Amino acid sequence: MKRKSWLFLVLIFVLVFSSACNSTDSPDVEAEGEETGGTIKIGVLASLTGALESYGKQTQRGFDLGIEYATDGTMEVAGKKIEIIYEDTETKPEVAVQKATKLLEEDEVDFIVGSSSSGDTLAVLPLAEEYEKIMIVEPAVADSITGAEFNPYIFRTSRNSSQDAVAGAAAIAKPGVKIATFAPDYSFGLDGVAAFKKAAEELGAEIVLEEYADPAATDFTSNLQKVIEAKPDYLFVVWAGANSPWNQIADLKLQEKGIKISTGAPDIPALSIMEPLVGMEGFSVYYHTLPNNDVNDWLVDEHKKRFNGEVPDLFTPGGMSAAIAIVEALKESEGNVDSQKLIDILEGMSFETPKGKMTFREEDHQALQTLYSIKLEKQDGVPYPVPVLIRELSPEETEPPIQNK
């Protein structure tokens, strides 16, 4: 009996010891696995259909190429695989919220990126704060994103309306000049005009008319008639989307009426209908021949190889910049996706992009970046007016005011 009791006690000891080993060793193995393996998920919101479809697809191409570039083709960082999940916002804020919620709750993404529309982006911003996830804004430009609607989880690689405004005003504004503005009637256009007006008036120009149109409109005749009646020296146009006003501006012969046109050079499809504006001076966010750096050279070469000789367009480098920013932050964090740790890394972080060095300003997380003063010129063999560099506008020159106080 004593022998049986002793054997029973030994058996109990072995079972207890084994259980204790399993309960302490297993978490260590799992934790180690999380450090050296696993997946980082990035959810990208973009207008993959609708009026801003071309912008969304440019961002998508750029983001894919950016992850590849920043990871040297491995699609991994700090030993973790990167998975990208794209969702179409359809350029509808309510859909953007639905898709963002799906990414955060069902897909459990570690980052949000987007979107093509400022309206979509503004609708999603509160979710980044609610779920405590970093959101990289690209390519939406409304000032309020890093201004009145700012929260600490938001970082923006796209330029904002004030940066555009400084560049646009520098091209045409001076004492005695009368300027009319024309823009779509939503946050992108409203913020763009407000920022341009401030910059132009500081340079001595007078804004004689602010004209806004339905962003879904296709007939702008009545709007442009008001511009003609105001008799400005310049019409400064803030526009995005396929339903642009360029054909009707040409049809109404504004330039023959003494009204010079100025704007930001748009994407290539829109440039193709700007033949009447050859000679116009304005600014550019990006055209593939404007930057002179190794990252842009790689982007142009790879884009041509993969997309039947097509060059990257207006928002392709922005998608790439957003991807590079995420990977560089993850390299610094050694793959840790804790948002507070990432905020500490991203604030003030500089990183190389197709547009040169960008820096996330610590105060409002807006990326300071280069823009370009350009003139539209006709070039042999190119079926649209080409933005030709007058000079680079440095990040210091285009630094916008801090508006998130």
From TrEMBL:
The keyword DNA-binding does not apply. PROSITE patterns: PROKAR_LIPOPROTEIN. InterPro entries: BCAA_transport, Leu-bd, Peripla_BP_I. Residues 1-23 form the signal peptide. Pfam families: Peripla_BP_6 (PF13458). Keywords: Signal. The keyword Chaperone does not apply. Residues 39-377 form the Leucine-binding protein domain. Belongs to the leucine-binding protein family. This is Substrate-binding domain-containing protein. It comes from Paenisporosarcina quisquiliarum.
